[in-house]
Amino acid sequence: MYEEVCRATGESGREAFNCLVRIWADIVRIRPLQEKDRPAADRVIPLMPDLVRAIEDEGFFDPLGEVFAVNGLGAKDQILTPEPIVRFIVEQTVGKAAEEPRRQPVRVLDPCTGTGRFLIVTARLYAPALGPRLHLYGVELDLELYRACLVNMRLASFSLPYRILYGDALMLDLGADSPNWAFANRWDPPDWRKLKFSRFSQTK
Ligand SMILES: C[S@@+](CC[C@H](N)C(=O)[O-])C[C@H]1O[C@@H](n2cnc3c(N)ncnc32)[C@H](O)[C@@H]1O
Prior knowledge:
The chain is mainly alpha-helical. The protein is built from eight helices and three strands; from the N terminus they run ααααααβαβαβ. The protein has two domains: 2-58, no CATH class; 83-194, Vaccinia Virus protein VP39 (Rossmann fold).
């Protein structure tokens, strides 16, 4: 799909990746397709059934992350974690929490979420047992990856409640009751530097 976008647009790298993300955002009804992306979309959409079959066969859902990783589109600090390692960490953390008897929801936060693969694997492994008591939170500072994560979560969150926030996890108040979460899941999020509620706020 990425290669088809490159062919249709004459772009490569992040530009082509972003175009693919926008096409998927239209497919999952996050944001309507823009005319400029239509030629690429016309090439990508016929490939969707093959992709769905491949996802079902492999049982892992982060193809946008794979495109990002395979084509080396990340900066130095943007290496995505391989799926077996993600699964191991999720089993050792969320898995343990899921086993405890509790009334409160199990809240999972990935403060550097990338394309959201920790949240995706969490949803796949624990949605059946925990259902809507599993709440997923992610924060991502790179707007393009943040948008890829929004698309992924729409596709792979198993209808669990999730909130993905664009911003700096080191700066923002990310407590479960933080007002910042009201700005989550927006394709065009506000500038996080202007959000009022930082970790260092004196008053809330
Ligand atoms: C190494 S990648 C890992 C992504 C994902 N958690 C994974 O393991 O596949 C780290 C991501 O965190 C983002 N990031 C780095 N510093 C951040 C910060 N202070 N707040 C939010 N996101 C940050 C980067 O843009 C990058 O996408």
